[in-house]
Amino acid sequence: MKAIICPKYGRPEVLQLSEVEKPTPKDNEVLIKIYATAVTASDIFIRSSKLPIQFLIPMRLVLGLTKPRKSIIGLVLSGEIESVGKDIKRFKIGDQVYGLTGFGLGAYAEYKCMKETDSMRGCLAIKPNNISYEEATVAAYGGLLAFQYLGKGNIQRGQKALIYGASGTSGTIAIQLANYLGAKVTGVCSSANLDLVKSLGAETVVDYTKVDALDPGAQYDFILDAVGKLKTSKLKESCKQALTPNGKYVSIDDGGLLLDSKRLDLIKEFIEAGRIKPIIDKCYSLEDIVEAHRYVEQGHKKGGVVISLVEQTGSIG
Question: In three state form, how does the secondary structure of 163-216 look?
Fold first, then answer.
């Protein structure tokens, strides 16, 4: 099968298209034919290993000291169950699925074996039936982040919520979810993405390229930092000072991402009901994954950047 190999940490150019042996599922595994994957911020960190020292050492201990322990990286996938082990109960051949591979990685390939039970090595669920495989990768990664961390705010109807990084993979879903919950949403993004963020349900948008502080008197019951703690700015500090006395500030870096198939089921319900829609910025082929990594690394994407393993984007789903 075709796969992208990451033989060492480094720039996007370290990624190599290669032929590797197709995996065979164990009794407690399913074999997934992957139709789409994505280039996430997590993939960039894994490939480049560019992190502050307090994060770098723990990550290297888990993923590999001098090079990735698993040469095929990739965190998110969507595809079809091709075969199942004899102990599998949740899935059957032909099921369309989506999910994350966790520390199991391996999504940058044509096939991946996964267990049906949730663990740090992945979670898997039936994909929403009204979106493409490509969109499903954005729903899996961005959806799990948005639902987990927005849920910490216990948002009530009429409250004010601010999403910092509203145009990213998790931010675009968080805007829609907060709007559905009845919040009055403010989105922080760049000039190029103001219209997108408004269209997703933000009542107010703040352009971080033009202002360093919120308007005097602005206050929010909940603030979600959807870009992570590594990205700092005067505006972000201003946002932290704009909480109501009982308000809550949450970052997507506050603890690990929970790999939860039940939450994937909930995301599926929301998408099929038309409450949220995953946003795709660009779609690349597996052969162009180096260019995809270069683009994501620039930090200006809106929604998700996906990798299609089928000839025509969106033709399956």
Answer: EECCCCHHHHHHHHHHHHCCCEEEEEECHHHHHHHHHCCCCEEEECCCCCCCCC
Tell me whether residue 5 is exposed, middle or buried, using C-beta atoms within 10 angstroms of its C-beta: 0 to 12, 13 to 18, 19 or more: middle
Nearest to 308 by CA among 138, 165, 145: 138
Rounded to two decimals, the pTM is 0.93
So what's the pLDDT on residue 169? 97
Whole-number Å distance between alpha carbons of 62 and 258: 17
- Assess whether 265 and 127 both reside in one domain: yes
Give the range of the structural domain holding residue 76, as residue numbers without chain letter.
2-143+259-308
Q: How far apart are CA 239 and CA 247, in angstroms?
A: 12
Give 274's DSSP letter: T
Of the pLDDT bands very low, low, confident and very high (cuts 50, 70, 90), residue 316 is very low
Instruction: Over range 224-249, report the average pLDDT.
Output: 93
pLDDT at position 229, please? 85
Using DSSP bridges, classify how beta strands 220-225 and 243-251 pair: parallel, antiparallel or unpaired: parallel
The last residue of a domain, from among 251, 273, 289: 251
Q: Do 151 and 169 meet the contact criterion of CB atoms below 8 Å apart?
A: no
Residue 156 has pLDDT above 60, yes or no: yes
- Predicted confidence (pLDDT) at residue 81 exceeds the cutoff of 80: yes
CB crowding 263-280: b at 16 or more within 10 Å, else e: bbeebbebbeeeebbbbb
**Number of domains observed in the structure of the chain:** 2
Instruction: State whether 12 and 105 are in the same domain.
Output: yes
160-164 and 96-100: which strand pairing?
unpaired
- CA 32/CA 30 separation, integer angstroms: 6
